[in-house]
Amino acid sequence: MKLITSSQCIILFVFIISTQGTNLSEENEEYLRFPPNFLLGAATAAYQIEGAWNVSDKGESIWDRFTHKRNGAIVNNDTGDIACDSYHKFREDISLLKELGMKVYRFSLSWPRILPTGFSNKVSKDGITYYHNLIDELLANNIEPIVTLYHWDHPQVIEDAGGWLNPYMIDWFVDYARVVFQEFAPKVKTFITMNEPSDNCIFIYTMGIHAPSKAFLHGIGEYICGENMLKAHARVYRMYQKEFKDIYNGSLGINVHARNFFPKHQNDSESAEIAFQFSIGWLLHPIYSEKGDYPDIMKKLIAIKSQEQGYSRSRLPELEANWVDYIRGTFDFLSINHYTSMIVERGDDKLEPSFYNDQGLIQYQDPNWESTISSWLKVVPEGFGNILRKLAMEYNNPLMYITENGVSGGNTVDDDHRVRYYKNYLKEMLISIYRDKVNIKGYTLWSLIDSFEWSSGYSQSFGIVHVNFSDPERKRTLKKSAHWWREVIKYGSLKICSLENGNFTPIL
């Protein structure tokens, strides 16, 4: 090791082989560089950044209705009415992507902005024009769009008709998707049908913390919601294959929030497996496994609990054989969101009956793990590598894109903790790619800019670009993490050192 000037970095490579394969100190030059043609970019979602909630003929969304109640369900009674005002400032956001060297941008579409009545009888000219302009601006700057059709914000009129508990929602979602493909498939080659469908159902019907908040249906509502979302995804996939694939040759995937589960006791791997199959396997197993259908352990445990609770049948609806065959294989890639990990052990401590109680597990986080401003988000880099390997093993190593990964922070541009988070989590991802051959082709961080964070409102920030929400102009300012990302993308490597003056120097 050689001492050098303050304008340079101290280089130290340590090679330690971990018997479990998750030690972050197992690093070498190969593990710190991104593979050739690996896509690096950022992600956002429509309701969280667009604002313009009642501009033109846009319809009311379930989040418009939910936040406007201002009943304390959202921190500070915040709303997405203006948010980052990206509806008017999308070109500025794209200029930030370009400045940082991002090659891909994952964003979502607002269903009620495109279909103001909720249904395909009326297509908004202004809504369509907005997204065409956004996509055109991305392509003009050599940034590839990844478009999510649904990120939790369906039209309120659809919810008034039952939302995801109504089986007709499947048809309505397919109608919406067809309009999207007709308009944007010539320009967009990568689509994601839904963001975190299992979490969406749980947050609405188990926990009641997200719009439209129907926790009184816990134990039943989440499973009906999941079934209808799964069928809607499959119908959209099959429709694209039949009507658009031969013309535009695009690809479709579904998204999952993939937490990692550590068993409290080393000899209790079954607890971690149960948590995985409920949380992730629930809606991925029917799509990605050769057998199809829900995981066996999930069907078994819910049936037992349902019987004990006096129900005449399992609260988990049975997938009919024709749907099992129809759903299986409806994917081109797997879209993964990951933030943190959990510890699991046997026990019942959740609402009964419910998604959590059905598992017979207690889930919590180690108090010794690094904390963040978000109570649910502890920093556990090794969990990222673990879950990537688990997904590869469970589902025959499908093509994967990491479409959300990031950490919250306060209202500051000095976010060293975020740089540290990204560096350590990305190391784990690269180890899984190089050593374990996990088939990952791209990564979009969460998120490009600070935004409305659902029930947390604007109290927690995930962006690498600061947004001043007290400024009518919503001024954007690059954080330290944004400067770090610019160098990482420029050199295609994590071997970037931070210097006291805020500049970065690559280790070549």
TrEMBL record:
Residues at the catalytic site: E404
Key words of the record: Glycoprotein, Glycosidase, Hydrolase, Signal
Pfam families named in the record: Glyco_hydro_1 (PF00232)
InterPro entries: GH (IPR017853), Glyco_hydro_1 (IPR001360), Glyco_hydro_1_AS (IPR018120)
Gene Ontology molecular function: hydrolase activity, acting on glycosyl bonds
Keyword Metal-binding: no
Superkingdom of the organism of origin: Eukaryota
EC number(s) stated in the UniProt entry for this protein: 3.2.1.21
Family (UniProt): Belongs to the glycosyl hydrolase 1 family.
Subunit structure and binding partners: Homodimer.
Protein name: beta-glucosidase
Organism, as annotated: Vespula squamosa
